[in-house]
Specification:
It contains 10 helices and 8 strands. The protein is an alpha/beta fold. An 8-stranded parallel sheet has the order 2-1-3-8-7-4-5-6, sandwiched between helices.
Length: 300
C-alpha cells in the first residue's frame, strides 16, 4: 500500500504550541516496520489546484503571509514560511494518494483530514481542506463526478460540509461529538451527533445505521477521514471509545469500501491523546487494518 508523508517538513510551531505535531513522525516510523507499506514524500500542491476548492484571494493570503490577525487566530497556527510549505505538502499528500487510488484502488496520506477549512478561511488547525481540493482536482482531470466523504473524526467536518452544501453529488457523512468543537455546526448530508461518553457499542450501533448511505449514494470515489480522537484517552475527544472500538469502526468502513470497490483514500485527521504515542498507535492500527482488508480476496 502506497502512502504519502510530510513530517519531513517542519511546521514551524513554537515549542510550547499545543498541537501534537510529533504524531506524524511516530506514525510513519511505526508503519515503516511493516513491509506492506511503501512511502513517498508528499509533493507540494500547486496553489492553482488549491484554488479549485478555495477562494483564490484566501489562497494568496496564506501563501504570501497577508492573513489578518483574526484569520490567523481562527486557524490556530502562527504564520511562517515553514507552515506554508507544510500546508502545501499536506494537501499534496492527499492529492497524490488520490491519484494513486485511481489505479491502485486504495492509498493514504499520513496527514490531511483538514476538514475545518472553509472555502474562504481556515479554522481549527486546518488551513486548506485537502479532501475538497482532491475532489475538485479529480473532477477537473477525470470524468468522475460523485463522491462520498466518511468523516469519523470526533469533531464535525464543518468546512467540508460548507464547501459541498449545495452539491448533491458529494455526500458528506459526519459522526461527531455533539458538545464538541465546532460549536456552530454546519449541515452535512448526514450528521450524527453523539453525546459525551459514548461507548464502543453505542458508537458502532450509530455507525451501522448510516454507513450504508455512503455507498448507496453510488460514489465514484470515497474519502475516509479516520480521526482517532473518539478515543477515551483523547484530551479533546469527550467520547469513550477504546482501541478495539476504533478497530471495529475502521473494519466496518474498510469492509464496506472493499465490497463496493470504488477507489478509497484515507486521511488521518485528529488525535490528541495523552500520551501522544497512543494516538500514533491508533493511526497505525487504522492503516494496518486497511492493508489487511484490501490485500485479502474480494468479498462475495
Amino acid at each position: 500500500m502506497l502512502v504519502y508523508y510530510c513530517d519531513h517538513i517542519d511546521m514551524g510551531l513554537p515549542p510550547e504550541h499545543r498541537f501534537p505535531a510529533s504524531k506524524y513522525r511516530l506514525l510513519r516510523e511505526s508503519l515503516q516496520k511493516d513491509s506492506r507499506f511503501t512511502f513517498h514524500p508528499a509533493p507540494l500542491a500547486d496553489p492553482a489546484t488549491i484554488a479549485l476548492a478555495h477562494d483564490p484571494l484566501y489562497v494568496d493570503a496564506v501563501i504570501h503571509g497577508t492573513l489578518t490577525p483574526a484569520a490567523i487566530r481562527r486557524i490556530g497556527f502562527p504564520w511562517s514560511p515553514q507552515l506554508v510549505q507544510r500546508t502545501l505538502a499536506s494537501a499534496g499528500a492527499t492529492l497524490a494518494a488520490t491519484q494513486t487510488a485511481l489505479t491502485e484502488k486504495v492509498s493514504g496520506a499520513l496527514a490531511g483530514g483538514t476538514h475545518h477549512a472553509f472555502y474562504a478561511e481556515g479554522s481549527g488547525f486546518c488551513v486548506f481542506n485537502d479532501i475538497a481540493i482532491a475532489i475538485a482536482h479529480v473532477r477537473a482531470t477525470t470524468k468522475l463526478t460523485r463522491f462520498s466523504v466518511i468523516d469519523l473524526d470526533v469533531h464535525q467536518g464543518d468546512g467540508t460540509a460548507q464547501i459541498f452544501a449545495h452539491d448533491p453529488e458529494v455526500l458528506t457523512l459526519s459522526l461527531h461529538g455533539q458538545n464538541n468543537f465546532p460549536f456552530r455546526k454546519q449541515q452535512s448530508t448526514i450528521d450524527v451527533a453523539l453525546p459525551d461518553h459514548t461507548t464502543d457499542a453505542q458508537y458502532i450501533e450509530a455507525l451501522e445505521k448510516v454507513l450504508h448511505e455512503a455507498f448507496t449514494h453510488n460514489p465514484d470515489f470515497v474519502f475516509y477521514q479516520s480521526g482517532v480522537d473518539p478515543l477515551k484517552e483523547d484530551t479533546l475527544g469527550k467520547l469513550d471509545l477504546t482501541m478495539p472500538g476504533l478497530k471495529a469502526r475502521d473494519e466496518m468502513v474498510f469492509t464496506a469500501a472493499r465490497r463496493y470497490a470504488a477507489p478509497l483514500v484515507i486521511t488521518i485527521g485528529g488525535g490528541y491523546a495523552n500520551p501522544i504515542e497512543l494516538t500514533a498507535a491508533a493511526h497505525v492500527q487504522t492503516y494496518q487494518l486497511c492493508a489487511s482488508i484490501f490485500s485479502s480476496s474480494p468479498p462475495l
